């Protein structure tokens, strides 16, 4: 099932790259494929998708939070904390749980 979802999101991303990324669902393609990478422990690939999503929608608190998780899993704690802090400042309370657990001394 995950492989099928990955394939479908990748095809949708390919289509959007060719035909325009202004369709409102395109950022979700990157978010969802990034989440598949994250769940599959392919953290570098997840970060690439979250980075692209943040280019399309700089206010995506889900992308910031999940990219923070990927950074944390890679041992890049400072980057993780920066992402979680930014998500919290944008009003995403769920990121505060990560920030409080992993970033507050």
Which short descriptors sum up this protein?
about 100 residues; mainly alpha; 6 helices; about 80% helix; about 0% strand; globular
Q: Quick check: average pLDDT?
A: 95
Number of strands: 0
End-to-end distance, in Å?
A: 40 Å
Class by SSE composition? mainly alpha
What is the tally of helical segments?
A: 6
Fraction of residues in helix: over 70%
**Sequence stretches where pLDDT stays below 50 over 5 or more residues:** none
The helix-strand sequence is: HHHHHH
Descriptive report:
- This protein has 105 residues and is mostly helical.
- It has six helices and no strands.
- It has helices at residues 2-19, 26-39, 43-56, 61-73, 77-89, 93-102.
- α2 runs parallel beside α4 and α3 (43-56) runs antiparallel to α4 (61-73).
Note the topology.
Blueprint: H1 2-19, H2 26-39, H3 43-56, H4 61-73, H5 77-89, H6 93-102
Structure in a nutshell:
With 105 residues, this protein is mostly helical. The chain has 6 helices and no strands.
């Amino acid at each position: 099932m995950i492989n099928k979802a990955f394939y479908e999101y990748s095809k949708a991303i390919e289509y959007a790259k060719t035909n325009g990324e202004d369709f409102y669902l395109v950022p979700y393609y990157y978010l969802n494929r990034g989440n598949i990478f994250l769940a599959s422990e392919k953290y570098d690939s997840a970060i690439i998708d979250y980075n692209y999503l943040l280019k399309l929608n700089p206010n995506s608190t889900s992308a910031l939070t999940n990219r923070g998780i990927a950074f944390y899993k890679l041992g890049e704690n400072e980057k993780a904390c920066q992402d979680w802090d930014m998500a919290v400042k944008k009003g995403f309370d769920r990121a505060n749980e990560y920030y409080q657990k992993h970033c507050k001394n």
